[in-house]
Write a structure and sequence with these properties.
Blueprint (H helix, E strand, L loop, with lengths): L2 H16 L11 E5 L6 H14 L8 E4 L13 H18 L11 H10 L13 H14 L1 H9 L10 H31 L8 H10 L6 H9 L4 H20 L6 H4 L5 E5 L8 H16 L4 E8 L9 E3 L2 H14 L8 E5 L2 H4 L5 H9 L12 H23 L16 E3 L5 E5 L12 H21 L12 E7 L15 H22 L5 E7 L7 H14 L3 E6 L5 H12 L4 E3 L14 E2 L5 H14 L11 E6 L4 H14 L4 E5 L17 E3 L2 H14 L3 E5 L6 H10 L7 E5 L13 H4 L3 E7 L3 H6 L3 H14 L14 H23 L9 H10 L5 E4 L2 E4 L15 E5 L6 E10 L2 E3 L1 E2 L4 E2 L3
Parallel strand pairs: 1-4, 1-6, 2-3, 3-4, 5-6, 9-10, 9-11, 11-12, 12-13, 14-15, 14-17, 15-16, 17-18, 18-19
Antiparallel strand pairs: 7-8, 8-10, 19-22, 20-21, 22-23, 23-24, 25-26
Helix pairs in contact: 1-13, 4-5, 4-10, 5-6, 6-7, 8-9, 10-12, 17-18, 18-27, 18-28, 19-20, 21-22, 23-24, 28-29
């Protein structure tokens, strides 16, 4: 890629972040330009960014540019406290001076208050109770920057200590309480609320910081500040001042109804450091504490870029970008999708001479001449005009509301967007626990999900109707509640739950609930089940918080006996399982496969085969199957994996261990990955920054050796994008043989289908149970599942969902629900008819010991139900299939494991070949 192309991409991403609208902002990692030796490329880039912000005639965005070697203008003072504040003073002065025209004056109340505290004499000089003299000093510093406070103080006159005359002393005696002592008391009261919050239930940032430092929440700000600020080490000193500064900058960007100057603050504040130096320099210490403070506060109003980084503090994890182009792509992804919680706070960009040569590029010269400066959106009217229109508009609105409130529904409308039972999640969607579909999204990608939730809601109502409003069945046990835990909404521009397997799982849950309740209500000898939905957010981003909500609900509602779901193996899923396990709630997994799931809690039971089990079968298939060009076995193998994804890393590591042949590993993490990359990669391989690079590497390998097999161990959501790139460059690689993991089945619901995207594709994929194939082998449960599916969804002709009859996600959810229902039935029978004794602790005891029959034939093969006491919480020889996809429908190429009681398959293919490589 030409050097200038990377510069252009980085500058465009930088411009977009600076001018990004407030409501779409998230935390931005601090960008650090690292270069070998004494290079000046990073310094030059920072200088160029400064020019874009400064504009030609006026400031375009508020910024501070630290360009001198010590990061400030002039030498620092001799006093150690003032020397600490020297860098801050320089930054703040520049921020105030560069406020664009029409955006008002920048006020920093938290920082100025703390500055007055730290510059006051030592605490021994204050003998007055409640630190009154310290409050006076703080108010004195406040008067220096507040014209109204100075005027009020002047009106109060001079006292004896100020050298006032007899007349002035008399006036001060009369007017001082009103114009001096009352405003000073009001200032101290406002400072208390500004730093500590209105109550202990709603603490401000300082109250939280002080509680972490001293263990107890402070009750008096001035006393706490003197105790905590003085005597701390320089890093903590910088941290508290940066927390105050960032809190002020975030507040300065928030709109106020009667403050039109603030509405013109459309740009972030930018901090530019020309020379960051080594890890012990004052500038790097400032940047380290800035990163921590931005993460602690969730600050969204600041963008920071530093050049000349000679060495890094390696104790802090960073996002590593090898080129400016990769850094631009990462920043563009932050602007588009935000920064996920837990992501590193800094991004290190390696720059060199090639970037410096971009200045001599004619394309660079033309582009920079055409776009020489930042271009923030310009307001239509001036602030005074907008203030007048706002007042007029509010007056008209007030008159209208006064006319409508009396007896109309406008005054009583529920203002809770999530209807009280849920809460806003990471992507702005309602997450949490709810009954039915009312609290969850209704976007185009969620309509089908909403239909299933409404079906479950109707089935819950039927149970309640049959058992009476009191919830007690006259002829059998009372109903129990199961919580489905999954990503029910994709969020803004996020992964569609139809593609993520959630819709398929929900259909299986609803069908199994219908089947179980029909038996229970007919016989009175089984426990009917209600189902609540717990939306864990797009790709389980909000899973830990939602798990805590489930625990809180279970403490109040004794009928909740278990949780089902966890269909995606992610680190946030792990945290949710640990939270529920600590609360003693039994969990049954659906399509989650990572070996790590079982290690999170002894209350978790797994229906799907583990990744190590599936990898054994995949290794045998790649070794013996004719899956490459011309119908021949593979000579070379490429393994595609995402090291940041728990599921993908688990599949890839297991495959490499089982395959035991030379395999080239290609590592690609999508820019919108929902979780941060691990600090240490468990996989060794070639790291690629973009899906275009991944497609190029695969195509080159196939062109060099047509008998190359691709093992796709990454997420299925990236498979379609990969095929689009392969189709674009397919002249060199017209044929491609791929074995996909089980997550690739989620890509089969996309339109167009994978083989339609790239006509030269030979696709095999792992399946955890195709019910039509098992029914043909005599599996009665698979036949019952198909009958239930066709009754409800047999007329489904939607292009995206018509393939779900063959999707293992549906059948696995059916088996998980059936397994949990059988455990609940056995637990109820163990009470001897004492219905009040049936709870989740009893269910956990039954599942731990194992179901009485030792197992059952599920729609996805034999389910081992011996429990932990019988050897494990999963089926060791669980059935695994490999299907070949095509326009005519799937065709089974491999079948290994226990199909039903007495039907064990250990060989496959014409060899026959062993299921173990």
């Amino acid at each position: 890629m030409p050097a200038f192309a990377g510069v252009e991409r980085f500058v465009e991403a930088f411009d977009k972040l600076v001018t990004q609208p407030r409501r779409h902002r998230s935390r931005v990692p601090v960008v650090l330009f690292s270069e070998p030796g004494e290079g000046q490329v990073g310094r030059g880039i920072v200088a160029g960014l400064h020019g874009r912000l400064h504009g030609r005639e006026t400031m375009l965005a508020p910024h501070a540019h630290l360009d001198s070697p010590d990061g400030s203008a002039g030498a620092p003072p001799d006093d150690p406290v003032l020397a600490q504040l020297h860098l801050f003073s320089h930054v703040i002065r520049q921020l105030m001076e560069t406020m664009p025209e029409g955006t008002g004056r920048l006020r920093l109340p938290c920082y100025q208050l703390l500055r007055s505290i730290v510059t006051a004499p030592p605490a021994a000089d204050f003998a007055m109770e409640h630190h009154q003299e310290l409050k006076d000093r703080a108010y004195e510093a406040h008067r220096e920057g507040s014209a109204p406070a100075r005027v009020l103080w002047w009106l109060g006159g001079r006292d004896h200590a100020s050298g006032g005359t007899l007349l002035e002393l008399l006036w001060n005696f009369l007017a001082g309480p009103l114009f001096q002592r009352l405003p000073r008391a009001v200032y101290a009261w406002r400072a208390q609320r500004l730093m500590l919050g209105r109550s202990r239930r709603r603490p401000r940032w300082y109250a939280q910081w002080a509680r972490l430092q001293q263990g107890t929440p402070p009750t008096d700000f001035f006393r706490s500040a003197r105790d905590l600020v003085h005597g701390v080490d320089p890093e903590k000193f910088d941290r508290i001042l940066l927390l105050a500064l960032l809190a002020d900058l975030d507040a300065a960007c928030r709109k106020r109804l009667f403050h039109p100057w603030r509405r013109r603050r459309v740009c972030r504040f930018v901090l530019l450091v020309a020379e960051a130096g080594d890890e012990d320099s004052r500038e790097q210490r400032f940047l380290r504490e800035l990163r921590s403070a931005m993460e602690d506060l969730g600050c969204t109003s600041v963008v920071a870029v530093a050049g000349g980084v000679r060495s890094l503090a390696h104790r802090i994890p960073d996002i590593e970008a090898a080129t400016l182009s990769a850094a631009g792509a990462e920043l563009a992804n932050v602007a588009e999708h935000g920064t996920a919680p837990g992501r590193p706070t800094g991004m290190v960009v390696t720059v060199g001479r090639d970037v410096g040569e971009a200045a001599d590029d004619p394309a660079a010269t033309y582009w920079l001449r055409r776009r020489p400066t930042l271009a923030p959106p310009a307001p239509r009217w001036g602030p005074r005009t907008e203030a007048a229109s706002t007042v007029g508009g509010m007056t008209v609105l007030l008159l209208i509301m006064v006319g409508l409130i009396g007896g109309t529904p406008f005054g009583n409308r529920d203002t809770d967007a999530c209807r009280g039972s849920t809460f806003l999640g990471t992507d702005g969607q309602c997450v949490g626990v709810a009954e039915g579909a009312a609290s969850f999204g209704s976007g185009s990608g969620e309509r089908a999900v909403r239909d299933v939730l409404e079906l479950i809601e109707r089935q819950n109502g039927e149970v309640q109707k049959e058992q009476g409003l009191g919830g007690s069945a006259p002829t059998g046990p009372a109903s129990r509640t199961v919580v489905y835990f999954g990503p029910l909404s994709g969020g803004a521009r996020a992964e569609d739950p139809v593609r993520g397997g959630t819709l398929a799982e929900l259909r299986g849950i609803a069908l199994a609930q219908r089947y179980v309740n029909a038996q229970a209500l007919r016989s009175g000898e089984r426990v009917p089940l209600r189902v609540l939905a717990a939306n864990a957010g797009d790709r389980f981003k909000d899973a830990p918080d939602v798990a805590r909500r489930v625990v809180e609900l279970a403490e109040r509602d004794r009928s909740i006996v278990g949780v089902i779901g966890f269909g995606q193996s992610r680190r946030q899923t792990y945290k949710a399982i640990r939270t529920l396990g600590e609360a003693g709630i039994p969990m049954v997994g659906t399509s989650g496969t990572a070996d790590g799931l079982l290690r999170q809690s002894g209350h978790y039971y797994q229906m799907a085969p583990t990744d190590s089990r599936a990898a054994t079968v995949m290794a045998s298939f790649v070794r013996h199957a004719r899956m490459t060009g011309g119908g021949r076995t593979a000579r070379r193998t490429l393994l595609v994996a995402d090291p940041a994804d728990a599921y993908s890393a688990s599949v890839a590591a297991s495959f490499r261990r089982e395959y035991r042949r030379d395999t080239r590993v290609l590592l690609y993490t999508p820019a919108d990955a929902p979780e941060p990359a691990p600090l240490t990669d468990p996989l060794d391989g070639t790291k690629l920054d973009a899906v275009e690079d991944l497609a190029r590497e695969v195509c080159d390998a196939v062109a060099d050796e047509p008998r190359t097999a691709v093992v796709w161990a990454a997420r299925g959501s990236q498979f379609q994008l990969f095929l689009n790139e392969i189709a674009r460059i397919s002249r060199r690689c017209p044929k491609l043989g791929v074995l996909g993991d089980d997550d690739v089945t989620t890509a089969l619901s996309e339109v167009p289908r994978p083989w339609q995207v790239f006509g030269g594709l030979t696709l095999h994929y792992v399946s955890h149970g195709r019910a039509p194939a098992l029914a043909a082998l005599g599996n009665g449960e698979a036949a019952a599942f198909l009958s239930a599916y066709d009754t409800v969804y047999g007329k489904d002709r939607d292009a995206r969902t018509s393939t779900m009859r063959d999707d293992a996600h549906v059948a696995l959810a059916w088996d998980a629900m059936r397994y949990l229902a059988l455990g609940i039935d056995e637990a109820w029978r163990g009470t001897g008819g004492h219905d009040e004794r049936l709870d989740r602790s009893l269910l956990q005891a039954v599942l731990h010991q194992g179901l009485g029959e030792g197992g059952f034939d599920g729609a996805t093969g034999r389910i081992d139900a011996h429990g932990a006491a019988g050897g494990g919480r999963f089926t060791e020889d669980k059935l695994v299939l490999v299907e070949r996809g095509g326009a005519a429908g799937p065709r089974t190429a491999l079948l290994c494991g226990v199909v039903a009681r007495g039907d064990v398959r250990s060989k496959w293919g014409p060899g026959p070949h062993s299921c173990a490589p």
